[in-house]
Amino acid sequence: MESGVRKIIHIDMDAFYASVEQRDDPSLRGLPIAVGGGGPRGVVATCSYEARKFGVRSAMPGARARRLCPDLLFVKPRFEVYRAVSAQVRDIFSRFTDMIQPLSLDEAYLDVTVNKPGIASATMIAQEIRRMIRAETGLTASAGVSYNKLIAKLASDQNKPDGVCVVRPSEGAAFIAAMPVRRIHGVGPVTAQRMKELGIETGADLRDRDMRFLQAHFGSSADYYYRAARGEDDRPVRERQERKSVSVEDTFFDDLVEQEALVAELDRIAVNLWTRIERAQAWGRTVVLKIKFADFRIITRSRSFAAPVRSPDLLAQAGRELLLAQLPLRMGARLLGLGVHNLAGEETQEADGQLPLAL
């Protein structure tokens, strides 16, 4: 990396939960496995690379995953083990820098512009971190090395698994230009589809649109897309703030009006939310429903409990009741979201009864 620029590394563990399970149970090695629930309402938290060859992906319903891969083996998550391994990896990071921003148990940004060993090359640091992870945990990690967070994160996915990708400042614009816009962080599936309809499929296509065009079609997100298309990102690496909520929301291609379709989508969202809650070990007392209508008006409705919600069925039931209370909708819903707030630490003891207190 050239001198005078930030040196950012994004480390992403390879198929983290699945790799831990294959490490600890040799009989699973080389087999297509999924960590998560395999039942009718189960969801894939992550899967091995053997399963990914069949099209199985994270957040996919378990039933669909089984259809894609009939030999898929489901393994129950062991979050206490994943947290312990994550702590090992975090300790390795801290030997090089204190500027660490975890994104989840299996990935983090590191700013190594100034680092503890005094190593000038960020690429060398990334290689050493990966070597230590393999030696101390028996697992592999991929790394992206660049001058900002946006490109470092994209780069870490470039040569997976067990790879490194380095993007220097002089290469950033070209790296983004060749990237499908759907891969750019901050461009979700619905936005990617809108961009495609506007003739924007690559970073180069996005860069060719001026600010006025982007503002007309993407509103307040225009500035981010304009800068991202040019490889610009000034966000600092910093310790993640204390989590205040966990939520999942989804935008639909067609606005939903009918009760059956709305409830089905909310149930799916509740399954994905429960996976995130378990992954983060973030139990909340308040369940919050979010509805965005076709005219972009947003409403939220919530229900609080006497103790943190620790049952996926109770979570889904609370969400359904909040939704049903709003039916019939005055117009179609373009987005549904479900979340939990008023989070409690893991040491919080669950009270008996969990009596609902309507807000």
From TrEMBL:
Record carries keyword Cytoplasm: yes
UniProt-annotated site: Substrate discrimination, residues: Y17
Keywords (A to Z) from UniProt: Cytoplasm, DNA damage, DNA repair, DNA replication, DNA-binding, DNA-directed DNA polymerase, Magnesium, Metal-binding, Mutator protein, Nucleotidyltransferase, Transferase
Record-annotated UmuC domain positions: 8-188
Keyword Cell inner membrane in annotation: no
Molecular-function annotations in GO: DNA-directed DNA polymerase activity
EC code(s) of this entry: 2.7.7.7
InterPro entries recorded: DNA/RNA_pol_sf, DNA_pol_Y-fam_lit_finger_sf, DNA_pol_Y-fam_little_finger, DNA_polymerase-Y, DNApol_IV, PolY_HhH_motif, Rev_trsase/Diguanyl_cyclase, UmuC
Binding site for Mg(2+): D12, D106
Protein origin, superkingdom: Bacteria
Cellular compartments annotated: Cytoplasm
Signal peptide: none
Enzyme class: transferase
Cofactor info, note text: Binds 2 magnesium ions per subunit.
Cofactor: Mg(2+)
Any Pfam family the entry gives: IMS_C
Annotated catalysed reactions: DNA(n) + a 2'-deoxyribonucleoside 5'-triphosphate = DNA(n+1) + diphosphate
PROSITE patterns assigned to the protein according to its UniProt record, in alphabetical order: UMUC
Active site: E107
CDD domains documented for this protein: PolY_Pol_IV_kappa
Annotated family: Belongs to the DNA polymerase type-Y family.
Subunit-structure text: Monomer.
General function of this protein: Poorly processive, error-prone DNA polymerase involved in untargeted mutagenesis. Copies undamaged DNA at stalled replication forks, which arise in vivo from mismatched or misaligned primer ends. These misaligned primers can be extended by PolIV. Exhibits no 3'-5' exonuclease (proofreading) activity. May be involved in translesional synthesis, in conjunction with the beta clamp from PolIII.
Protein name from the UniProt record: DNA polymerase IV
Native source organism of the sequence: Sphingobium rhizovicinum
Lineage of origin: Bacteria, Pseudomonadati, Pseudomonadota, Alphaproteobacteria, Sphingomonadales
